[in-house]
Structures are given as structure tokens and as C-alpha cells.
Design a protein that fits this description.
The complex is a heterodimer of chains A (619) and B (423).
Chain A: H1 2-5, H2 7-32, H3 35-44, E1 45-50, E2 57-58, E3 64-76, H4 86-93, H5 97-108, E4 118-124, H6 126-135, E5 142-151, H7 158-161, E6 164-166, H8 169-174, E7 183-185, H9 188-192, H10 194-198, E8 202-208, E9 214-217, E10 233-235, H11 239-248, E11 254-260, E12 265-272, H12 285-293, H13 304-307, H14 316-326, H15 360-366, H16 369-380, H17 388-401, H18 423-430, H19 454-466, E13 469-471, E14 476-479, E15 494-496, H20 502-517, E16 532-538, E17 546-553, E18 560-566, H21 576-589, H22 595-603
Parallel strand pairs in A: 2-10
Antiparallel strand pairs in A: 1-8, 2-3, 3-4, 3-5, 6-7, 8-9, 10-14, 11-12, 11-18, 13-15, 16-17, 17-18
Chain B: H1 2-6, H2 15-35, H3 50-70, H4 73-78, H5 80-97, E1 108-110, E2 113-115, H6 117-134, H7 143-163, H8 167-171, H9 177-182, H10 187-205, H11 208-225, H12 230-256, H13 259-269, H14 281-291, H15 319-351, H16 356-380, H17 398-416
Antiparallel strand pairs in B: 1-2
Helix pairs in contact in B: 2-3, 2-15, 3-17, 5-6, 5-7, 6-7, 6-16, 6-17, 10-12, 11-12, 14-15, 15-16, 16-17
The chains are: A alpha+beta (619), B mainly alpha (423).
Chain lengths: 619, 423
């Protein structure tokens, strides 16, 4: 028996071994292996996102431009959908049974899944929501997620304000803040000021049971975050002026950019044809978007004010005048002949018939092509430089300092650079040393390869109005009521051009004054306001010339600088001029007395003309 | 006898074991409360909830324990076979007389409550084994007696397995192998059993051809180290043949298993692809619950995996998940150690008996408790196949708690008379 009693140690040993094995195993799965903790969180937590209210946008006088309207997405978790009265449900939503089944299939198939919540019906209106809310409890697996929709009470400034859309997969990979389907600014201010407008999403961690029923907040919300509402923006825009500009530009192709010279604030920015920004909101968004997108005749989604590059045309003659004086080859007394064209090159570029020879003021007043060809030639063949290349480079650098051929770095999303051709470019085209001033003479009158956006054009006028400096043009005045928000700091830096001598500017302004008194714009008077202007006709290789007009007013202490371009409308004084002066009149006087002109402009339909050809997108 | 008259029925009761018992059932009750916690019925004594009912089971268990201590210890020895016969009859009768509940035919129902005679068969069988083997003329080494003992164990096993189809409850009877081993069963039987388990697993995991080659090679190697006489060679050849037979038999046994049993074995051994949403769900969820507990757990009532029903049967067979999730590694280790202390304590108590009946019965108690602990905890952490048997003193359930209480307290009663005459 004694020997058998020894067996108790073996039995106890086996029991203890099993116990040790269990404890070791527990140590591995509980302490060492973290994957079970992750699995547990994934299963029993539901992360509910609280979407913040997107910031409102106001104009400079606190007029509401953009606000939000509540909308509701109907979400579905297909796994949970059981025993529902499909007919009743379809009736409630106003869909057919086929549509219901289609939507359910979509919610089940990849990238969705029966266990993943996805949108069943997007953006239900508050009225439909009220109807649905009462009876939703009867439809298990469906819930409503509130979202906000942008609303535009004045239906203006579509290009400026831009639109929002849903973040795609690519975006979520770049910026983990976004989940697929979150709203994100796609264009305009919505894009540039996305971070301020969007606010911050809140997160609520809920515990759920095996049937996906919510069981309360995890640790009483210890790890929850509240949504932070988006900040409001105060735009520099004058809504009334913008609206007026859009009315004037109605049924015309082109753009208007008006800037307050002393601040660089954009008062109005019209790109026509435009569209009602409300079209790109809500359930009809996709339908409307493709309609606008596919309208290749009017190209309404295209922001001409910042994305279209035109030859600057005659307005460049102003810059030319400034450079000539700065380089010491031009004074107000300098006279050049004109024989309906630039004689040294056999009458090219051509010019209108007018008195000859002219001094600077009259040359600006008559916008004489011959005169500015001579000026350009004198700048490029300036004796103070060893060779032509250095003179050309000096000319080009001064022009660049006027922000021509360079992005303005404004807060308008998507801006074109424009172009001033470089030495390198001409060397490539003509061969090194085998080109001279007369080869590229049309640069002198703002033609040839030169390109300028209407925004840059307005900025050039601003510089002349300011006599040599500018603030980067911008569209936002204050963020959340704070004009000193750090994101706006870059608009408070004063930029000086390469020409700072105010005498030089005064001479050009005198010339611009001549334009309105006796020159090309002498028929366009604004009651009680002296202003400076320059008409232009930008040669259009694709069709009728563009009508260009730049101006600032009043002459002393300018309050508004404006650049207007109407495509394929011919003379600057005939279309762009009236529109520009009407807008200045409206802005400065608060009312317009030239009702006939106003009516004529608003009623005119110039759209049935050869269109502007959109430049090919560089990839 | 003088001594017993002098003292109350509680003299010589081993209070350490009683305290361990009380500690474990209290911990079990608190864990059941947490596992099925219902905010609308947050009072632990709420009789509409399982924790309220468990309180009732605990209360009645204590009354039963008291009754057991009051009954004369000779009752258990004298009526061992009768008790065995009565409960065996109940086990056989229940599929015909009892009401079918959720596909199970092993319950007698009394209103809201049910009793499972199979649970009580454990102590009854233990009594019968003790009675049989304690006969001083019986030696288990005699193969006829071995067979009789196996029949005593085998009849209830078959009744429960075949008639009631309760594999889990039936398989518990294999725990008595420890008792038999202690009473002198040849170690060869244990080794044979062990070999059978190892070969069963290997046969499922490894290509059988390789196993035959390995077994053959081992036999050849064995002959190099032993005296090569006819008898030894015969033994080696026999072992080899038996081993090969087991391997061959494995597939036959496996094929005859029911689908859900095959799946449970596959899940345990990680054979083929385990679908965590279907056959692998239970074990995976149990592991997630326990694994997410970390060092010290999520805190009492803060478990999410168990309370929110990701883990199935979280209050009964998978109650250990609540322990693991809410009390972490520290808590689960404490529970395992407490259960083992109780079991080993029972072994030491068994060894101090003068009466073979008491000793054999004591070993039966330890064996049954150990078997439950091993399978129950083992399945939740993926070390044992999923067999639905309760964790002693922890799992919710009247029959199992009563059964464990009776099993243990008969031994406590017997132990309190350890100083009395030999039976």
C-alpha cells in the first residue's frame, strides 16, 4: 500500500502542471499578446462621428453669402435589417421596390458590407426627415445621420465661394482627418479655407452589444471629444457690387475683377458665364455638376478671372510707359511718329489713324501701337546695358515685379501663372543671338506670347493707383471675426515693385486721365468722379478681339481698381469700358444714373460669339 | 464513539475546505452578476435575473450541505449502491419522462427550475466505486475487478451519452481514472491512454504513412537497447502493432464523430481553415474576452465582451471569460490557484483517511473537480476542445452547484469521522 500512496505525488504533480500550463497560457494571451485587446475594441466599440457645423461666409458688410441647412443621410446597416415592411418603407421614401433592392445590394456589396454602415439615401430634406423620423423605429437597421448642406441666399460668386464635395479614398490616404464621404472643400474659398471652415469632428465612443445595440458611452465619455464648429469667414467681397457685376456680365463671356487698392481686398470677382451655386448642393448635385461640366460652349465651371490667360493688350502699354521712364529712355516729352502703324516694320503693328507724332499722355490716350513699339525698342536697345539680353532681362524683371507672369499667391484656389516670355524661350525659338527688339516687337503692345489673368490685370491697375506697391489680392478679411488671424498675415505684407518713384506713376496716371477726358474713353463719364483708365483690345488669335478696360477711381485717393474683359466683344470702350465705369459708379456713388447704358449692358447677349478656347490642361 | 457524542455534528469538520467552498461560490455569484448584468434589474437578489436565481441555488446548496452533515455517515456507505441505482434509473428515465428543453432531453422540469439527474450521477458513481473498491477482498489489480469497476463507471457514461446525448456530462466519468490509478491500477493503462491521446492528435495532424514509419523505426531502435529474447521482442512488436492500430483507428473514430464534435477538434488543433464567424466563433470570442483583460482586467462590471454577449454562454460554460476580462491575468490566476488548492487539499484529506471508502471517495471528488477545471478553463483559452461542462462553484446552474456541493460535502462529512473506526 505504501507504494501506492506515493502515487498521490504523481497525481498532484499532474494537477499542478496543468495549472501552470493554464497560467502560462493566460500570461501569453492576456499580457503579451495585444491583438485580443484590439479585437475587443473593434467589436464592442462604435465610434460615432459628430460632424461640426461648417463655417458661414459673409461679405464685407456682414451680408450672408453662405449658410448651412440641415440635411439628413439615411444610413443602413444591412445585417440588422430584418422583418421590415418594405412596401411601407418604400412608400415613405418615395422609391420603388426595385430601387430599394438596388440600394440594399449596393450597401451589401464591396466596398460596403453587411456589417458596415453606409448611406442608403443621401440628403433627405428636413420635411421628409420629419415624416421619416416618426416611423423610423419600425425599420430596424436604419438610422439617420445629420449632415449640413451649404446654402447660398444671394446665388452669387459661385466661382469665388467654390463648392464642397465628398472626400475620396485618395484624400483619406493623404490626410487621415478625413474619412471617405466626409465633406471637403473642392474649389474656391471652400478649398482655400477648408481648415478654418470645417471645424473639428467630434468623436463619441459608444459600447455596443453583440446585436449592435448601443449600450451607453464608454467610460462615461472620458475619451469622447466634442465637435468644434467651423469658423465663419468675412469675405472682402461687396455682395451688392458682385451681384451688379454678375448682372452686367450676364450673357457675356469674360470677367471682372475689382480690388480696393489700399488693402488688396477683392471687392468683386465675376467670371461669366456663371451658375447658381445652389445647384452644386444636395441630391441633384451630381446631375447638375455633370450638366455644368459638360457645357463646353459656356464652360460655366471655369473661373476665367483666375484661370484664363489673355494677352494683356493695350493695358500693358501702361507698364511699358513705367518701365521706359524707369530705364531712362522715356519722358513725358518723348515723341514718336505713327503712320497707322509702326513704320520701321512696314506698318506693323498696325494702329488707328490719329494725330502724329504724339507725346506720352496722348500716346496713352490714343493707345498708339506705333508709339509703344518705339518705346519697347528703346528699352531693349538701351545703351546703358552692354547687350540686348541684359536690357531684355531688366525689362522682364520689372514686368515680373508687377506680378505679371507670376502667380499672385492670392487665396483664390486654382490660379494661372500667366506668362512673360524669357530669353531662354526666344533663344529656343529663334536661336541664340538671332533675335532682337524688332523680332519681338509685339511684346511692346502686350501681345505675342504674353499672358495675363484678369486678376493680375486688376493688380497692375492697383499698383498704378498705389504708385508702386500692392498687397497680395485676397478674398478673406477676417476669420471668425478676427482680422489678425495668422493665416491672413501674408496679406498684410506690402509688396513694392521695381519702380517706386511716384513721379513716374503720376505721368502714367496723367496719361490715363487723358484717356477718360479726351482719349478712347471720353464718352464714359462717371458723375462727380474723376478717374483714370486705359482701354484695350486684346488680339484674339481664335476669333474676334477681346474688349479690355482697366481703371481706378477716384483719380486722387483711389478706392477701387478694376479690370474688365469681355471676350470677343471688340473695342475696349464699347463693352468692357461701360461695364467697368458702371461698376465704379455703383461702388463709389451707391447708385447709377446712366440707366440707359446700364440697361443696354445688362440686356446684351454676346454669348453667341466664337468662344474663348480653354487652354489645354498641363498634366 | 465517545468523542462524537461529546461534540456536535460540526466537530472535526475541516473548516478550511468549507471556507474555500464558500469563497468560490461567492466569487462565482459575483461573476454571474457581472456576466449577465442588467441595468434595469441591478439588485443582485432580483429573482427575475440569473444572479437572483443563483442566490437561491446557493442558499439551497447550503441547506443541502447542512443536511449532508447531519445525516449519519454510515448512510453513505450503507446506501452507496442504492443511491447509485436510484440515480442511474433517473438518468435512464429522464429522456422518456422529462420535458425536452432546447433539444436537450436530460432535464426534469419543475416550473421555472430544472434538474439534471446526470449531474448527480457523479457523486452516486463515486459512492459506488468507493463502496466496491473498499471491500478488503477486492484488489483492482485483478482484471475482473478492473472490469467490474469500469462497468460501474461505464453504465452511467453510456446512459448519459447514448440516451441523453450529453457528451460533456458523460465524458466527465473518465475522470475516475485518477482514482483507479491511486488504488493500484497498472500504470500501463494510463500510459496506454496517454499514448492513445497523443497518437489521436498526431494522426489528425500528420500524414499517417509517416506515423507508421516513425512507429516502426522506434520499435526497431527499441530492440537495440533491450535484451533480445522472445518475450521482449513480442512486447515491442505488440506495442508497435497497437500503436499502428490506434493511428489507423483514429480516422475511423473521427469519421464517426458528429459534425460539431469534429469541428471542435479541428478548431482546437487548428486543422484546415477555421471560420471565426462560425465554428471558431465561441473559442475566438472567449479568447478575445480573456485576452482583452490584460494584467488586472477592465474592472468589475466593466467587461464589454461578456456583458454584451459577444461570448456565448457567458454565465455558464464560459463564465471564466468574465473572470479573465474583468479581473485580468491576476484574477484568472487567483481563480485557478484557488480551485487547485481546494482540489489538492481534498487529496491530502483523502490520504489521511483510515477508511479506504473515505479515501477512494475523496480521490473521486478531487478527480471530478480537476477534470471540470481542466476542460472548462482549457476550452476558453484554446487548450481543450469545447465540451460544455461547468466550472465548479462558478458557473450558473442549480443542478451543477447542488451536485458539486453534495459531492464535496459527503466527503467533508466522511472526513469528519476520519478518526472513527475503520469501515
Amino acid at each position: 500500500m505504501n507504494q501506492l500512496e506515493e502515487r498521490k505525488y504523481i497525481i498532484i504533480g499532474v494537477f499542478i502542471l496543468v495549472g501552470l500550463a493554464f497560467i502560462t497560457r493566460l500570461f501569453f494571451i492576456q499580457v503579451i499578446d495585444d491583438s485580443y485587446k484590439l479585437d475587443a475594441r473593434n467589436q464592442s466599440f462604435r465610434y460615432n462621428t459628430e460632424f461640426p457645423v461648417r463655417g458661414y461666409i459673409y461679405d464685407r458688410k456682414h451680408k450672408l453669402l453662405v449658410y448651412n441647412e440641415a440635411a439628413y443621410d439615411l444610413m443602413v446597416l444591412p445585417k440588422e435589417v430584418k422583418d421590415i415592411d418594405t412596401a411601407d418603407f418604400c412608400n415613405l421614401l418615395g422609391i420603388t421596390k426595385d430601387e430599394f433592392l438596388k440600394k440594399m445590394r449596393k450597401a451589401i456589396l464591396a466596398p460596403n458590407s453587411p456589417r458596415k454602415e453606409s448611406v442608403f439615401e443621401k440628403q433627405i430634406s428636413p420635411q421628409d426627415y420629419a415624416k421619416l423620423q416618426e416611423r423610423l423605429y419600425r425599420f430596424r437597421g436604419f438610422k439617420v445621420q445629420s449632415r449640413t448642406l451649404r446654402k447660398y441666399p444671394m446665388k452669387i460668386a459661385a466661382h469665388l465661394l467654390g463648392y464642397i464635395g465628398e472626400a475620396d479614398k485618395e484624400r483619406t490616404e493623404i490626410d487621415p482627418y478625413y474619412n471617405e464621404g466626409d465633406y471637403i472643400g473642392i474649389s474656391g474659398m471652400e478649398k482655400t479655407y477648408e481648415k478654418a471652415l470645417r471645424g473639428k469632428k467630434g468623436l463619441h465612443i459608444m459600447m455596443v452589444d453583440v446585436n449592435n445595440r448601443e449600450k451607453g458611452s464608454y467610460k462615461n465619455g472620458l475619451y469622447d471629444t466634442m465637435a468644434i464648429p467651423g469658423k465663419s469667414l468675412m469675405s472682402t467681397l461687396d455682395a451688392d457690387l458682385q451681384l451688379y457685376g454678375e448682372m452686367l456680365m450676364h450673357d457675356k463671356t469674360g470677367s471682372v475683377v475689382a480690388i480696393e487698392p489700399s488693402t488688396g481686398e477683392i471687392l468683386a470677382l465675376v467670371s461669366s458665364p456663371s451658375y447658381d451655386p445652389n445647384l452644386l448642393v444636395g441630391r441633384a448635385r451630381n446631375k447638375n455638376f455633370s450638366k455644368l461640366y459638360l457645357d463646353t460652349v459656356r464652360v460655366p465651371l471655369f473661373n476665367r478671372a483666375t484661370m484664363a490667360s489673355y494677352p494683356p493688350g493695350s493695358t500693358f502699354k501702361l507698364v511699358e510707359s513705367l518701365i521706359g521712364q524707369q530705364e531712362g529712355v522715356l519722358t513725358t516729352e518723348t515723341k514718336y511718329p505713327c503712320s497707322a502703324g509702326y513704320a520701321p516694320l512696314g506698318g506693323h503693328p498696325k494702329c488707328e489713324v490719329h494725330p502724329s507724332p504724339l507725346a506720352l499722355y496722348d500716346a496713352i490716350g490714343y493707345s498708339c501701337n506705333s508709339y509703344f513699339s518705339y518705346v519697347f525698342k528703346s528699352i531693349i536697345e538701351n545703351k546703358k546695358y552692354d547687350n540686348m539680353y541684359k536690357a531684355f532681362e531688366a525689362w522682364r524683371n520689372i514686368a515680373l515685379s508687377f506680378n505679371i507672369g507670376r502667380k499672385t499667391n492670392s487665396d483664390l484656389a486654382n490660379e494661372l501663372r500667366g506668362n512673360i516670355p524669357s530669353i531662354k524661350y526666344y533663344d529656343r525659338v529663334f536661336g541664340k543671338g538671332s533675335w532682337k527688339a524688332s523680332t519681338v516687337i509685339s511684346l511692346g503692345i502686350g501681345q505675342a506670347e504674353m499672358g495675363i489673368t484678369p486678376l493680375q490685370n486688376a493688380n497692375v491697375v492697383t499698383i498704378i493707383a498705389n504708385k508702386g506697391w500692392y498687397y497680395t489680392p485676397h478674398i478673406v478679411k477676417a476669420i471668425d471675426g478676427n482680422a489678425n488671424d495668422t493665416t491672413l498675415n501674408r496679406f498684410k505684407i506690402k509688396h513694392n515693385t521695381a519702380i517706386t518713384d511716384s513721379v513716374i506713376y503720376n505721368n502714367v496716371r496723367e496719361g490715363m486721365s487723358h484717356v477718360t477726358e479726351s482719349g478712347t474713353a471720353h464718352l464714359l463719364k462717371i458723375e462727380g468722379v474723376e478717374y483714370c483708365a486705359k482701354t484695350g483690345t486684346a488680339e484674339n488669335p481664335h476669333g474676334r478681339d477681346h474688349s479690355v478696360f482697366v481703371a481706378f477711381a477716384p483719380k486722387d485717393n483711389p478706392k477701387i481698381a478694376i479690370a474688365v474683359l469681355v471676350e470677343n466683344a471688340g473695342w475696349g470702350a464699347s463693352w468692357a469700358g461701360p461695364i467697368a465705369t458702371l461698376m465704379m459708379e455703383k461702388y463709389l456713388n451707391g447708385k447709377v444714373v446712366r440707366k440707359d447704358l446700364e440697361k443696354q449692358m445688362m440686356d446684351a447677349d454676346l454669348i453667341d460669339q466664337p468662344k474663348y478656347v480653354k487652354p489645354k490642361k498641363k498634366k | 464513539m465517545e468523542r462524537n457524542k461529546r461534540n456536535s455534528i460540526f466537530s472535526d469538520v475541516d473548516w478550511v475546505v468549507v471556507l474555500l467552498y464558500l469563497l468560490l461560490i461567492t466569487m462565482g455569484w459575483l461573476n454571474i452578476y457581472s456576466a449577465v448584468y442588467n441595468e434595469d434589474h441591478h439588485v443582485i437578489t432580483d429573482m427575475t435575473q440569473k444572479y437572483g436565481k443563483q442566490m437561491l441555488w446557493i442558499g439551497t446548496s447550503l441547506i443541502i450541505a447542512l443536511i449532508i452533515l447531519i445525516i449519519d455517515e454510515k448512510f453513505y456507505t450503507a446506501f452507496a449502491y442504492i443511491i447509485y441505482a436510484v440515480f442511474l434509473l433517473a438518468c435512464i428515465a429522464v429522456p422518456y419522462l422529462g420535458r425536452e428543453v432546447k433539444g436537450s432531453r436530460s432535464w426534469f422540469r419543475f416550473g421555472d427550475f430544472g434538474l439534471q439527474p446526470a449531474e448527480f450521477m457523479k457523486f452516486a458513481t463515486n459512492l459506488a466505486i468507493a463502496k466496491f473498491l473498499s471491500n478488503q477482498f477486492i484488489k483492482i489489480t485483478d482484471y475482473r475487478n478492473t472490469i467490474i469497476t469500469l462497468i460501474i463507471i461505464g453504465i452511467p457514461f453510456l446512459a448519459i451519452k447514448v440516451l441523453e446525448d450529453e457528451t460533456g456530462l458523460a465524458i466527465v466519468f473518465s475522470a475516475f481514472i485518477f482514482t483507479l490509478y491511486r488504488e493500484g491500477l497498472s500504470v500501463n493503462y494510463l500510459l496506454l491512454g496517454f499514448l492513445a491521446i497523443v497518437l489521436f492528435i498526431l494522426a489528425l495532424m500528420v500524414n499517417n504513412i509517416y506515423l507508421f514509419i516513425i512507429i516502426g523505426s522506434l520499435c526497431v531502435i527499441a530492440t537495440l537497447f533491450i535484451k533480445r529474447n522472445a518475450q521482449n521482442l513480442f512486447v515491442v512488436a505488440l506495442i508497435g502493432l497497437v500503436a499502428c492500430g490506434m493511428v489507423k483507428g483514429t480516422s475511423t473514430v473521427y469519421d464517426h464523430l458528429e459534425a460539431h464534435q469534429k469541428v471542435r477538434i479541428d478548431v482546437l488543433l487548428g486543422r484546415g481553415t477555421v471560420n471565426l464567424k462560425k465554428e471558431g466563433y465561441n473559442v475566438n470570442q472567449a479568447k478575445i474576452a480573456i485576452g482583452s483583460g490584460g494584467w488586472t482586467g477592465k474592472g468589475y462590471l466593466n467587461g464589454t465582451q461578456t456583458k454584451y454577449e459577444f461570448v456565448p454562454a457567458q454565465d455558464t460554460d464560459f463564465i471564466f471569460c468574465t473572470v479573465g476580462e474583468e479581473w485580468g491575468f491576476v484574477g484568472s490566476t487567483v481563480v485557478i490557484i484557488l480551485e487547485l488548492i481546494l482540489i489538492i487539499k481534498v487529496i491530502f484529506m483523502a490520504e489521511r483517511q483510515r477508511s479506504p471508502f473515505s479515501r477512494i471517495y475523496g480521490y473521486g471528488v478531487a478527480s471530478v473537480l480537476f477534470f471540470h477545471l481542466t476542460i472548462n478553463v482549457g476550452m476558453t483559452i484554446g487548450l481543450a476542445p469545447v465540451i460544455g461542462i461547468p466550472l465548479p462553484f462558478f458557473s450558473y446552474g442549480g443542478s451543477s452547484l447542488w451536485s458539486f456541493t453534495i459531492l464535496l460535502f459527503i466527503f467533508i462529512k466522511l472526513d469528519s469521522h476520519r478518526l472513527a473506526i475503520l469501515r
